[in-house]
Design a protein that fits this description.
The chain is built from five helices and four strands, in the order βαβαββααα. It starts with a strand and ends in a 12-residue tail after the last helix.
Length: 165
Amino acid sequence: MSIDVNNESGTEVDEQAILDIARYALARMRIHPLSELSVIVVDTDAMEQLHIQWMDLPGPTDVMSFPMDELRPPTKDDDEPPPGLLGDIVLCPEVAEQQGKDAETQHSMDEELQLLTVHGVLHLLGYDHEEADEKAEMFGLQAAIVDGWRAEKGLEGPSPAPTVS
């Protein structure tokens, strides 16, 4: 799996954890090991520009996903997924930090960025949360992936509650 993490935000983030959880999420979703992903960490000004340009919404957001090859998890255990270019995930640590503070179960900026990385991966794979049933499926899968990764790393407690809008 080729995953590039590029921090352009000026904020110190745990790039290794972002890389690790992205790799874990893609393996858990059975995405071909030769697939490629890019994660870019930006400041609020850059995120706001992207949010306006692509979503026509004001202000910065927490995470944006830009899919490329429309890869999907295999539908059966014996299907071999094709390799491909997944796309880009853009994260904003300043928004993540505030969301972590505002969450019902307060958590760190890095924990929020890990959650947002998984959220972004799932969006690249075609998951969405516009409808109630889609939201339940996506957020359930997101929690399972984050919890699995945290357990594998020996980290305490369950994953942060979803704060993604």
